[in-house]
Amino acid sequence: MDTKLAAAIQRENQLEDAGMHGDDRETCWTHQCWAVDCADRHTPRPSTRRQQDYPPF
Fold it and tell me: What is the pTM of this model?
């Protein structure tokens, strides 16, 4: 891992702790690489919207 990647992962960890959604990361925390380098190793996640997020009928 190079220093640029390590710094980006650390910065995105802090942003995620501050409220950034994990899907907005440019790095992959799991594989410790750039997200585009391991996109084919991840399965698509279902929608994260919960029932209470929908307006009432």
Answer: 0.63
